[in-house]
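can u do me a favor
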């Protein structure tokens, strides 16, 4: 990367960081598994400072933050907290010293209530019994601190949407003393209103002297909240400067070694006959009777607010949830497909890349090779015995095609970064080669450079004649890659726009319309009509 490029994209601001008391200092931090994932990283953070930490998937961001928070031990280097040696042996030990972390993958117990998840290790007692009144009140106060005042404390976490689960996780980490808070992709699953509430909490914590390490790929979001930017590339620190001195383009090139592409050439494609026909498919109040066609070679996007029924619609099509009414037809078949389970859907030629890769998409302890071939094991087996060389060949092919950062196909999926785990999920269904592919937030947690790799892959699949149905909270993403965009609001499919006939304003207006028409106060509050959803794509 040229110095001229960086200079051209920097603002006229001082590059020196003003001297300030140091809360935490890292010196020469390195981490090696089989290969080095971090090398000689030295960085400091002061009380009340917000440090943005970014880089491609696999660059070492999560590993570095886990070292800071006691989840992983460094191979080399040292840390000082308030000038004293700091070597936490566990997350609990780090938390006792005021170092806390909200991880990208949620760490909640779905079968327990919000109250029990928040105060699991410090449940209030009275005469040997849990004091439920005190627990409920403490839960209400803690949830109010993150802007959620209308949720029953006894609601099971598993019954919440992913966005609300994220807010519960954040609230849990704000309990007790907090001197340094690490936030790993905290807004990836939040609505625009929840994002604003989170930013208010960050400002409050900063004013109270809490230092914050904010990990994200959303560069415009980082520039809004952070003082400094630290960029990791291939495990090495390539930038530690005031963030105001860098444009988005300069940060992208620091992260990936090249500029981001502004346009996507979908190439010549032919839109054919319907591959999937959905007729009056619905489930209770979650998804109203919904009908649409997905055609061969088409990329059909589904937009809407979190909770609008987008994911639930995909789950009904895939047989993961049981529909109350409606039918699904494959191709030109006159008889409806019998899909009562995901197994039936796969047999009918439907694949689904889920939003929650951790619990629904991967066998984390198993290898990349096994996860990739899982949906088509017969093709890498002989006489019922797994053919390891064949499995390795398949894994190596997809590692290369999708640029999965890994040691080789034998590496456990759980050892990969979140974005690379997502690529493994996609690889599995590419290998299965289903004509109909459902994608739920396919680029959530994927860095800027890798997003366009996924977009190009989607374009190639559509050129092969596959039908792609894509749910995304990122409006610009849908507008970039889709032929049509259907909009869901309050469980209903309210509009469908052809390419060239949409805008951010019209899509957002449709997304809010169902809540306003229903007079749902809570829904209307959640549907704060800002452009924050569009800002999710600003990192492009």
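np, heres the sequence
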């Amino acid at each position: 990367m040229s110095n001229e490029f960086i200079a051209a994209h920097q603002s006229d601001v001082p590059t020196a960081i003003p001297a300030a008391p140091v809360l935490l200092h890292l010196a020469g931090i390195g981490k090696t598994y089989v290969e080095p994932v971090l090398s000689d990283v030295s960085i400091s953070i002061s009380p009340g400072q917000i440090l943005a930490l970014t880089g491609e998937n696999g660059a070492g961001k999560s590993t570095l933050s886990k070292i800071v928070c006691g989840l992983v031990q460094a191979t080399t280097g040292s840390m000082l907290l308030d000038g004293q040696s700091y070597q936490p042996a566990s997350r609990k030990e780090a938390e006792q010293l005021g170092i806390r972390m909200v991880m990208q993958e949620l760490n909640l117990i779905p079968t327990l209530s919000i109250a029990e998840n928040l105060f699991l290790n410090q449940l209030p007692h009275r005469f040997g019994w849990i004091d439920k009144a005190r627990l409920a009140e403490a839960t209400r106060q803690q949830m109010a601190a993150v802007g959620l005042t209308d949720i029953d404390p006894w609601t099971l976490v598993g019954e919440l949407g992913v966005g609300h689960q994220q807010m519960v996780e954040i609230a849990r980490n704000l309990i007790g003393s907090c001197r340094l808070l690490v936030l790993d992709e905290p807004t990836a699953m939040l609505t625009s209103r929840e994002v604003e509430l989170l930013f208010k909490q960050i400002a409050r914590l900063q004013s109270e002297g809490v230092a914050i390490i904010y990990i994200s790929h959303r560069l415009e979001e980082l520039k809004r909240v952070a003082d400094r930017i630290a960029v990791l590339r291939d495990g090495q620190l390539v930038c530690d400067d005031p963030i105001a001195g860098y444009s988005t383009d300069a940060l992208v090139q620091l992260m990936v070694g090249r500029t981001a592409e502004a346009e996507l050439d979908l190439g010549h494609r032919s839109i054919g006959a319907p591959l999937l026909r959905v007729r009056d498919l619905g489930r209770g109040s979650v998804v109203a009777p919904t009908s649409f066609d997905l055609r061969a070679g088409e990329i059909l996007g589904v937009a809407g607010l979190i909770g609008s029924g987008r994911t639930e619609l995909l789950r009904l099509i895939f047989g993961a949830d049981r529909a109350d009414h409606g039918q699904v037809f494959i191709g030109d078949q006159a008889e409806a497909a019998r899909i009562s389970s995901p197994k039936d859907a796969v047999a009918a030629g439907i694949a689904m890349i889920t939003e929650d890769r951790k619990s629904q998409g991967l066998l984390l302890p198993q290898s990349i090779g096994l996860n990739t071939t899982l949906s088509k094991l017969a093709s890498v087996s002989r006489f019922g015995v797994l053919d390891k060389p064949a499995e390795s060949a398949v894994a190596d092919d997809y590692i290369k095609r999708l640029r999965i950062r890994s040691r080789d196909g034998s590496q456990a999926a759980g050892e990969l970064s979140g974005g690379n785990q997502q690529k493994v999920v996609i690889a599995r269904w590419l290998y299965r080669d289903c004509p109909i592919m459902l994608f739920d937030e396919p680029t959530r947690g994927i860095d800027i450079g890798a997003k366009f790799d996924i977009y190009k892959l989607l374009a190639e699949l559509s050129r092969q004649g596959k039908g792609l149905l894509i749910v995304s909270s990122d409006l610009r993403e849908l507008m970039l890659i889709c032929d049509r965009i259907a909009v869901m609001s309050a469980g209903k499919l309210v509009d469908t726009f052809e390419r060239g006939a949409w805008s951010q304003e019209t899509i957002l207006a449709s997304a809010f319309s169902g809540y306003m028409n229903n007079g749902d106060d809570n829904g209307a509050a959640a549907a704060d009509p800002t452009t924050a959803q569009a800002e999710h794509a600003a990192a492009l």
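The two ends are 19 Å apart (CA to CA). hope that helps!!
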